[in-house]
């Protein structure tokens, strides 16, 4: 799957948006999103799905805590539970979809538990081997954040620095690593806990989890790894992530 420069450019504009406008996403943009979903499913073995009548899963007592309103559009992040590193893959490819949507002028939000998951599973008609891990809301958003969005943004602030995330290094840092780390600093995470760090030792770049995050840390890892890859790509380093002896290595 070809990496798009627009995904990197979208990193600086991406924000979690929970209040949407009741507007139809154009057919052209819907087709672009669906095509990327198809490409991702082919490459990853996941079964991500585009939903055009998803507001029904964003209502009710539990969903009210997510405070998502005004959109029918969701992306269901689904995969075979036997797939190795399933949640990490969900995070990685889900964030590429988020950045594609951002590049199309749409707002998005990762949604972990604050939606009607049981109803959504029935709608999707999953196989016995598949799990719905989480969903992403998307749609048109007003230019300014709503009051509830501003309050949630303030409550979830957790600003980290370059040295907070690149916690091990033993040599001068090449430009592609710097660009990758700076992009990873802008990666979202569940509850904004940011439980991911990196090391660059003997010319080898690794990503790893530093603490648990209510079961979302592997998704957070995948999201951060996607941001790092795009940052390195922006610096002319066309690398890929590999899992070697349980370690996440970028080369």
Automatic annotation (TrEMBL):
<keyword id="KW-0560">Oxidoreductase</keyword>
<dbReference type="InterPro" id="IPR000415">
    <property type="entry name" value="Nitroreductase-like"/>
</dbReference>
<dbReference type="InterPro" id="IPR050627">
    <property type="entry name" value="Nitroreductase/BluB"/>
</dbReference>
<feature type="domain" description="Putative nitroreductase TM1586">
    <location>
        <begin position="8"/>
        <end position="232"/>
    </location>
</feature>
<dbReference type="GO" id="GO:0016491">
    <property type="term" value="F:oxidoreductase activity"/>
</dbReference>
<protein>
    <recommendedName>
        <fullName>Putative nitroreductase TM1586 domain-containing protein</fullName>
    </recommendedName>
</protein>
<keyword id="KW-0285">Flavoprotein</keyword>
<keyword id="KW-0288">FMN</keyword>
<dbReference type="InterPro" id="IPR029478">
    <property type="entry name" value="TM1586_NiRdase"/>
</dbReference>
<dbReference type="Pfam" id="PF14512">
    <property type="entry name" value="TM1586_NiRdase"/>
</dbReference>
